[in-house]
Specification:
Layout (H helix, E strand, L loop, with lengths): L3 H53 L4 H84 L1
Helix pairs in contact: 1-2
Length: 145
């Protein structure tokens, strides 16, 4: 007969695999957030460079208008990237919550398995004590005849 703790170990293993899978997702989402933040920082740095150069250059009104259109598009790209960072962080946070739930499930399953092991050990010890008592009683009974 398969012990309850052995059956529970199968559930613990399944829960651990799911936790590991979600953990990989969390790492992937974290990398995406970092990449999106680096892209945003690059865009902001690029915009700052252009802003500094504009102040240093004397431009005709035609060039200034074209330059301003470019800067406007760059600012729009920055806003879009900020939105992407926010979405990436939201995905990361959702993955973290999934991992936390998976971790809690694994810990719960492991606790139940440990509880089963303790109960099985207690029952085995009780059974062994009963067998020892029966053996001692038989031996005593046999010796008294």
């Amino acid at each position: 007969m398969v012990k309850k703790s052995a059956r529970m170990q199968v559930l613990v293993n399944l829960a651990q695999r799911e936790e590991d899978k979600v953990s990989e997702l969390v790492a992937s989402e974290r990398q995406k957030v970092d990449l999106d933040k680096r892209k945003l920082q690059d865009l902001m740095s690029y915009a700052e460079q252009y802003d500094q150069e504009r102040n240093l250059l004397g431009m005709s009104s035609h060039l200034a208008i074209n330059y301003q259109h470019f800067v406007d598009r760059l600012q729009q790209a920055i806003r879009q990237q900020e939105g992407q960072v926010a979405r990436s962080e939201q995905q990361y946070n959702m993955a973290m919550r999934r991992w936390q739930a998976a971790r809690a499930k694994t810990k719960g399953m492991d606790w139940l398995k440990d509880k089963s092991v303790i109960e099985e050990d207690r029952l085995e010890a009780k059974l062994e004590q009963v067998q020892n008592d029966e053996f001692a009683a038989r031996k005593f009974f046999d010796n008294s005849r």
